[in-house]
Design brief:
Keywords: Metal-binding, Signal, Zinc. The protein has two domains: about 270 residues, 3-Layer(aba) Sandwich (Aminopeptidase), CATH 3.40.630; about 120 residues, 2-Layer Sandwich (Alpha-Beta Plaits), CATH 3.30.70. Helices cover about 30% and strands about 20% of the residues. The protein has eleven helices and 17 strands. The strands form five sheets. It has a six-stranded mixed beta sheet with strand order 1-2-6-3-7-16. Strands 11-13-9-14 form a four-stranded antiparallel beta sheet, covered by helices on one side. A three-stranded antiparallel beta sheet has the order 4-5-17. The longest helix is centred in the middle third of the chain and has 24 residues. The radius of gyration is 26 Å and the shape is elongated. The structure holds zinc ion. Zinc ion binds next to loops.
């Protein structure tokens, strides 16, 4: 039915008289919400997940159009909060933004401000464990959506945007993201693109990560004939172990030389760092028997593999050169996470035209005046690996430029203006990704 002209005029009149002016974005309120979240003690070994989840849940519910759900992918003491900003076309794959709730412990005596005080100094630095890793992005996601709705109340994303707040990332994610991606709730999200944490950048450009290195815990064991401390003989456990330690040290030196020469980045080589040595016969008084050569000795290594490395070749090298059975050596590798996706491909997300999400992401940052540095492999490991394993395009990104890298360090802080800039960046990213058809 065609509406008469007076009806249209009446609607126009009503909307003109009832339209509210757009309230200004309250930056100070965003900063204090960030500080309040930082004050919740979510550091290991006893992260307060329930307080954090109820805080984030009520924050999300204070924003129009957002829905929340609390899930328990592993156990009732490890909640996961899922926030949803529904899109107009649910048949399209969704966007998932992620932040882990937990953080590493802090030693208060080594901090200039108490690590859970979220003190803001005169120069704007907010000190707290988790300020960079990664409670900033947790709040920035929500503040960005709040601002989008505030400045454009009619904005509706085409694709649905979800935010996941997950437990246990800092201890491997086995009871967090690893379990969540196996759940039916996750499958129902139909995720097409995943954005996870990154790291601060000391330059004027933002950093983006397209892969993580994968950690291996390697233990090399040597056995040999025991003997009196005074005897000289071949193939003692200690002699065999020390030969291996030398071989691994040489390998490490060669890898590190590539970094020092600028040929490869730190995260592009295999690192093999000696983390413990174990041998000796205890004498009972806290010392060791000095006149005995032990029959067993072992060395522990933290090994990190970039996705460009063939893990089978490294295993071959370990078996043949680092711990050869011909020298009575054995080894044990605990792989702390997947190395290949479900199709057998290395866990890397393309940063070229073959990945349409890359262009949308890159352009969104450019659109709000930001600049990206060359995409990198992350030296360490995040929950992103569980999504890459499913073949989901995934980037690591935390918008912190001109900021010292302080994750897991004493006196971790983030500047208030950097935090606010990050909200602007996410406004652009969320709008672009959710409008991409
Ligand atoms: Zn983190």
């Amino acid at each position: 039915m065609v509406k008469p002209i007076w009806y249209t005029l009446l609607l126009l009149f009503l909307s003109a008289t009832t339209a509210q002016p757009v309230p200004p974005v309250d930056a100070e309120a965003s900063i204090s919400r960030f500080q309040n979240y930082l004050r919740i003690k979510t550091a290991h070994p006893h992260p307060d997940y329930s307080t954090a989840v109820s805080f984030l849940d009520s924050l999300a519910k204070s924003i129009p159009n957002l829905h929340t759900r609390t899930l328990y992918p592993a156990t009732p003491d490890k909640p996961l909060l899922l926030v949803t900003f529904p899109g107009s076309n649910p048949s399209l794959q969704s966007i998932l933004l992620n932040s882990h709730i937990d953080s590493v412990p802090a030693e208060p005596s080594k901090w200039s401000h108490p690590p859970f005080s979220a003190v803001r100094t005169d120069d704007g630095n907010i000190f707290a464990r988790g300020a960079q890793d990664d409670k900033c992005i947790a709040i920035q996601y929500l503040e960005a959506i709040r601002n989008i709705i505030l400045t454009d109340p009619h904005f509706t994303p085409i694709r649905t945007v979800h935010i996941s707040y997950v437990p246990d990332e800092e201890i491997g994610g086995l009871h967090g993201m690893a379990k969540f991606v196996e759940s039916k709730e996750f499958k129902q999200l139909n995720v097409g693109f995943f954005l996870d944490e990154g790291q601060a950048s000391t330059t004027d450009q933002y950093r983006v990560f397209y892969a993580d290195r994968s950690p291996w815990n390697l233990v090399i064991k040597a056995v040999g004939m025991p003997g009196h401390g005074s005897r000289m003989f071949d193939n003692s456990a200690m002699e065999n172990l020390m030969k291996s330690v030398e071989v691994v040290s040489k390998f490490r030196e060669n890898q590190f030389d590539l970094v020092k020469a600028g040929v490869l980045a730190n995260s592009e080589v295999i690192s093999a760092n000696l983390v413990y040595l174990k041998a000796g016969i205890p004498s009972g008084d806290g010392n060791f028997a000095m006149n005995m050569q032990p029959s067993e000795a072992e060395a522990g290594y933290d090994v990190r593999l970039p996705p460009t490395v063939d893990p089978d070749l490294l295993k071959k090298r370990i078996g043949e050169e680092w711990a050869p059975a011909t020298r009575n050596m054995s080894y044990d590798i605990v792989e702390k996470g997947p190395l290949r996706d479900y199709m057998g491909r290395p866990l890397m997300t393309a940063t070229n035209d073959s990945n349409p999400w890359w262009s949308v992401f890159k352009d969104a940052i450019k659109a709000c005046g930001g600049e990206l540095s060359k995409p990198e492999i992350l030296s360490s490991t995040t929950d992103a690996r569980y999504l890459r394993q499913l073949g989901i395009p995934t980037f690591g990104f935390s918008p912190m430029k001109n900021t010292p890298i302080l994750l897991h360090d004493h006196n971790e802080y983030l500047k208030d203006s950097t935090f606010l800039e990050g909200i602007k960046i996410y406004e652009s990213i969320i709008k672009s990704l959710s409008s991409f058809e």
